[in-house]
Design goal:
79% helix; Growth Hormone, Chain: A; mainly alpha
């Protein structure tokens, strides 16, 4: 009992460390968002439809790697701690970005994306880290703060990528590699371990280290499986903008990488305001379930505005509505982490990463091919926003399912 008060400052400091790790990774990812599709387009001779199809392949393979590797890395973090898995992922990303920076053709660029998918599990492990150091009643707020790292990444990363990309399409990948290297060194020398030895899983259950085997983890916890289904619908809908935004905005509005940088900055500011400053008060007032409903419902409205917008200025009106979707993940993560104990938080995050991997597999063909179809049939059916409308329908489906299943846990995580 006497050891509890001094533990609180340590936990606060540990969260600061992990937020810095997530922030630097978000920036490194954000840097390549406005660049990779344009680099692919450059490699295919400027053909927008062909670039969209290649982007589908790259995104699909990346998602497959997440689907396969997410459960393995989650189990490893439960068994050996969060810190070594985070370091493995961060240094792996450093190598991945070097591959993409110097790829002479699409084949080598493809290899870089495969490696990126294998190692890009740092966010899920970081969420398990948060569950280790934050009490259940405060997790939604802290997951919101963690989500704001994506917002900062969307402000700094695409802005840096857009501006550097106008100098040289390869330069942003080099900068991303440098950020990952600095991130890895920071984690190596500063980041403490969050999962004590006595709270770690005693064995590696390899039967659950494969994606299909890990689904049994969900089936044993029925309501948890339903919440993961909500998360999957949201994540699938969320992949629409990474899949088609650069090509969509260039085709419909003629936006250059520089304009994309400013647009990502505005989007990131909206996410930061919601996730860093509003999630805590909103969850305190309406609960985690209310946050999920608010995020999926208003986020769908933002997508509808994006899809209907006939001009770039109208598109910008949808940004604050889309920013409200930032309530979804903190609410869901708060509900889900209550349903498992400390020795299974990594496995939970690994399964969630696997589901996100499935979304990343399905999203690029769903949205990229529907956009390619819309472009090729523009003369007969002018509907370039078709993939965005599909995404809005997915968020509305998540909203409807949440009404029934996003309810507080009857037991605490400690008892799970």
């Amino acid at each position: 009992m006497t050891e509890t008060p001094p533990a609180r400052p340590r936990r606060t400091a540990a969260f600061g460390f992990i937020f810095a790790v997530a922030l630097m990774n978000a920036v490194s990812f954000g840097i390549m968002i406005p660049i990779l599709p344009n680099l692919i387009k450059h490699m295919v001779g400027g053909d927008t439809a062909a670039a969209s199809e290649w982007n589908v392949l790259f995104g699909t393979v990346w998602g497959v790697m997440q689907f396969v590797c997410g459960p393995v890395l989650g189990l490893l973090s439960d068994r050996f701690g969060r810190r070594p898995v985070l370091l493995l992922s961060i240094f792996g990303l450093f190598i991945d970005f070097l591959f993409m920076a110097f790829a002479p053709n699409l084949g080598w660029l493809f290899v870089g994306r495969v490696l990126n998918g294998v190692t890009a599990a740092s966010f899920s492990t970081a969420n398990a880290y948060v569950a280790d150091v934050v009490e259940p009643d405060r997790r939604a707020r802290y997951f919101g703060i963690m989500g704001s790292a994506f917002g900062f990444g969307f402000i700094l990363g695409p802005s840096i990528g857009g501006f550097l990309g106008e100098v040289n399409l390869r330069l942003p990948f080099m900068v991303a590699a440098a950020i990952c290297l600095a991130n890895g060194l920071y984690g190596l020398f500063v980041l403490p371990e969050s999962l004590p030895v006595e709270r770690r899983s005693s064995t590696m259950n390899w039967a659950r280290a494969n994606p299909l085997g890990s689904l049994s983890f969900l089936m044993e916890r029925g309501r948890l499986a339903a919440l993961v289904a909500v998360a999957f619908l949201y994540q699938l809908g969320f992949t629409v903008l990474p899949a088609i935004f650069v090509l969509y905005s260039g085709y419909r509005y003629g936006w250059t990488p520089g304009i994309l940088g400013w647009t990502f900055m505005a989007t990131g500011i909206g996410q930061i305001v919601v996730q860093m400053f509003l999630v805590g008060p909103v969850v305190q007032r309406v609960g985690e379930r209310g946050a999920v409903l608010l995020g999926t419902g208003v986020g769908a409205i933002g997508l509808i505005i994006y899809g209907l917008a006939p001009s770039g200025w109208i598109y910008l009106i949808g940004i604050p509505f889309w920013a409200m979707s930032g309530f979804t993940t903190p609410g869901l993560m708060g509900l889900m982490t209550r349903r498992v104990g400390p020795q299974n938080q990594g496995q939970l995050q690994g399964v969630a990463q696997s589901m996100q991997g499935i979304a990343s597999v399905l999203g690029p063909p769903l949205f990229g091919l529907s956009f390619s179809w819309a472009v090729r049939n523009n003369a007969t059916l002018h509907l370039p926003g078709l993939p965005i409308f599909i995404s809005a329908a997915l968020l509305l489906s998540a909203f409807a399912l949440s009404i029934r299943v996003a309810k507080p846990s009857p037991v605490s995580a400690a008892a799970a």
